[in-house]
Amino acid sequence: MTTFTIAATGLSMNYMPQYIAEQQGFFEEQNLNICSYLPDPWTKGLDDLENGQADVVLGGMWLPMIYSQDIQKYTSVAKIASKCPLVILSRERLTGGFDWKNLEGKRVLVSGGDGAGHYLMTVGSAREGGADPSKIRFIHDFSTSMICDLFEKGFGDFIVVQPDVAHSMIDRQVGFNFCDLTRKGSNIPWSVYYGLPETVESKLDEFEKFAVGLQKGTSYLLENGGEACRNIIKKNWPAISVDDGIKTIDMFIKEGMWRSTINIEYQEVDRWQDYLILGDVLDRKIAYEQLVDNRPYLYSKNKLSL
What's this model's pTM, rounded to 2 decimal places? Predict the structure, then answer.
C-alpha cells in the first residue's frame, strides 16, 4: 500500500465522494492508503506541499488561480464539487420572491479569515443574477466564528454560512433562508485537489490511482444517494440530525453539486475566473492548460470506461 496524503481545508459535506470512496474501499482497491488531515491553520497545507508532507491540498481552486499570477505554480488534478454549498440567510423574513437585488444597500457578512471563496462566489453570483455589486455593503474581514457572533447579536442584514450553521440559525430563528447557493449559483470548480507540478510528475501513477478511487466514489454517491452516507454523517456531523444530513446530500445531488465525472471542466474554470476578476484578485484570465493537469482524470476515464 502506498500512502497518498491530502491536506483538506475543512470537513465538508461537499467532499462526500472522497469519504464514500474511503468507506467503500475504492482507494484500497488501487493499493492506496489515504491519509487525510485538517492542517491548522488551513494554509499550513501549502507549506506541507512544499516540504513533501502532503501530496495535494483539497480546497478552492481560487487559490491556485491567484497564485498562478507569477507567485507559485500549483496544478489542479481532479474536481470534487461543482457547486458552492453555502447558504445566505437574511435577518428578516423576505416576501415577494427571490431577487439578488435585495442585497443592494445592505450589509452582507461573508467569512474572510477562512478563505476568499465565500466572498468571490457571492459577489459573482449577485452580479450574474442582475444585482450591482458596488451597491452591496460586503463585510468580509472576519473569521466565520466572528461573523456568526456578530450576526446573532444584531450586526448585518445578511450572512453567508455553511449549511449546518445555517440550519442551526434557522432552527433558532436567528435568520431566515434567503437562498442556497447550491441552487442559485452557477457551476464552478468549487473544490478541487491541487499540488505542485513536480510532485504530480514524479508521482503520476499514484495520482492516477487516486483519480480512479475518487471517480468510483463519485459514481457510487450519485447512484445510491444520501442514504449511503448515513454512517459518515453520524460520525462527522453529530450536531445535526442524520436525516437532515441525508436530505442535504440528496439536495446536493439534485442540484448538481457532483457531476458525473471528476473532470475539471473548461467552462467552469472560465466562469470562476470571471468571478475572481470581479473580486479584484485576478488581473486577467489564465490559460486552462496552465491551471489543470488532466492526466489523472483521463486515466480514470479509460480505466473505468467512462
Answer: 0.93
Contact 232, 16 (CB under 8 A): yes
**Could you read off the pLDDT of 171-197 as tens digits, one per residue?**
899 999 999 999 999 999 999 999 999
Q: Do residues 79 and 192 make contact, with C-beta atoms less than 8 angstroms apart?
A: yes
Number of neighbours of residue 267 by Cβ within 10 angstroms: 11
CATH fold of 87-184 reads: D-Maltodextrin-Binding Protein; domain 2 (3.40.190)
- CA distances, 191 to each of 61, 95, 213, 217, 263 (Å): 6, 33, 17, 15, 12
What single-letter DSSP state applies at residue 80? E
Mean pLDDT, residues 18-25 taken together: 98
Average predicted confidence (pLDDT) for the chain: 95
Q: Where are the domains of the chain?
A: 2-82+188-303, 87-184
Residue 113 scores a pLDDT above 80: no
d(CA 121, CA 155): 22
CATH class of 2-82+188-303: alpha beta
Alpha-carbon torsion angle 223, 228, 229, 231, nearest 10 = -170
Q: Which residue is listed with cell 456578530?
A: 150
Residue ranges with strand state E in the chain: 2-8, 32-37, 56-59, 75-81, 87-90, 107-110, 137-139, 158-161, 176-180, 191-195
Q: Do domains 2-82+188-303 and 87-184 have the same CATH topology?
A: yes
